């Protein structure tokens, strides 16, 4: 029986790989951006989202949002497949959600993603992920939305992903997943740091680190926001696949000694094979944006 069990398992693996190869020949799985005017978590529903579909040579993901003077500016990771490297781009939408332009705004000789935005002392800053460079760098906007200048490195020699800042109770808190060594994953351990200002290298590790150790809810998935008077931290569920679903975690304790959160809500891909994953959420009261992997039929080869 062990021989037949092993043989059966082998053929199941072969069939899965063949199915995946055949699917990839006819279909393209692509990260896209979705928008809706709904902002209440209870009102989020897949039919209410409008898609922004990139050209077939790239994907768009990790949307962060600024709305000014009747326009919506969505900062994203744009990865062109041929370059195998992400850069930060900005999608500009009118008040009706129509795409007006798409322009790259920040590019480096290494991969960039997750363009977290924050304001400090009246200026707009970006904290993109640059884990490939083993650094966490801050950029200041000098001409909105296209020009950004390097300010400083907050952390170096660290594989840190999806860093998310929160000003709270007199401190700046930094949430991020860290890949501690080659044997670890960047998906399952959330680390917390704090400082008096966001523009510093003096980030103190929280004594409870890692504050979350669970691939289903650790990795950040957008800016922390307030809902019904409570702080809510979006996070990724990557158990089934990378970036499969979104969790909304209510923060119940956040101080220099303790951190606790409980699950408040969840958004999974709908049944079927059209939408396969979603892993970033942001909302500013005027517009809600998220990303999703959709399956598109390829044009005839």
Structural description of this entry:
This protein is mainly beta and 301 residues long. It has one domain: Tachylectin-2, Chain A, CATH 2.115.10.20. It is built from one helix and 22 strands. The strands form five sheets. Strands 1, 2, 20, 21 and 22 form a five-stranded antiparallel beta sheet that branches. Strands 11, 12, 13, 14 and 15 form a five-stranded antiparallel beta sheet that branches. Strand 9 and strand 10 form a beta hairpin. The chain starts with a helix and ends with a strand.
Keywords:
single chain, 301 residues, mainly beta, Tachylectin-2, Chain A, 5-stranded antiparallel beta sheet, 1 helix
Class by helix and strand content? mainly beta
Order of helices and strands: HEEEEEEEEEEEEEEEEEEEEEE
CATH level 1 class label = Mainly Beta
Report helical residue fraction. Answer: under 10%
CATH topology-level name? Tachylectin-2, Chain A
Distance between the termini: 45 Å
* Average of the residue pLDDT scores: 92
Q: Tell how many strands the DSSP assignment holds.
A: 22
Number of helical segments with 4 or more residues:
1
Concise overview:
It is built from one helix and 22 strands. The chain has 301 residues and is mainly beta.
């Amino acid at each position: 029986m062990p021989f037949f069990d092993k043989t059966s398992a082998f053929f199941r693996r072969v069939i899965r790989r063949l199915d995946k190869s055949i699917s990839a020949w006819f279909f393209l799985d692509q990260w896209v951006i979705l928008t809706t005017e709904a902002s209440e978590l209870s009102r989020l529903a897949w039919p209410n989202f409008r898609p922004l579909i990139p050209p077939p040579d790239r994907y768009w993901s990790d949307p962060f949002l600024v709305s000014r003077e009747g326009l919506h500016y969505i900062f994203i990771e744009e990865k062109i497949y041929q370059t195998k490297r992400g850069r930060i781009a900005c999608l500009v939408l009118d008040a009706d959600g129509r795409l007006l332009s798409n322009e790259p705004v920040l590019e480096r000789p290494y991969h960039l993603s997750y363009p977290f935005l924050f304001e400090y002392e009246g200026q707009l800053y970006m904290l993109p992920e640059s884990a490939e460079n083993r650094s966490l760098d801050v950029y200041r906007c000098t001409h909105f939305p296209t020009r950004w200048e390097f300010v400083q490195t907050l952390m170096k020699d660290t594989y840190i992903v999806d860093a998310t800042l929160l000003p709270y109770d007199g401190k700046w808190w930094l949430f991020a997943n860290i890949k501690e060594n080659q044997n670890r994953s960047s998906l399952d351990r959330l680390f917390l740091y704090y400082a008096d200002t966001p523009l510093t290298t003096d980030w103190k590790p929280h004594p409870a680190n890692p504050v979350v150790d669970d691939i289903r809810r650790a990795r950040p998935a957008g800016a922390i926001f307030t809902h019904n008077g409570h702080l809510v931290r979006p996070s990724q569920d990557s158990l089934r696949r990378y970036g499969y679903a979104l969790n909304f975690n209510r923060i119940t304790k956040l101080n220099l000694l303790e951190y606790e959160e409980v699950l408040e809500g969840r958004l999974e891909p709908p049944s079927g094979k059209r939408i396969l994953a979603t892993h970033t959420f942001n909302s500013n009261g005027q517009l809600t944006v998220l990303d999703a992997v959709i399956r598109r039929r390829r044009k005839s080869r």
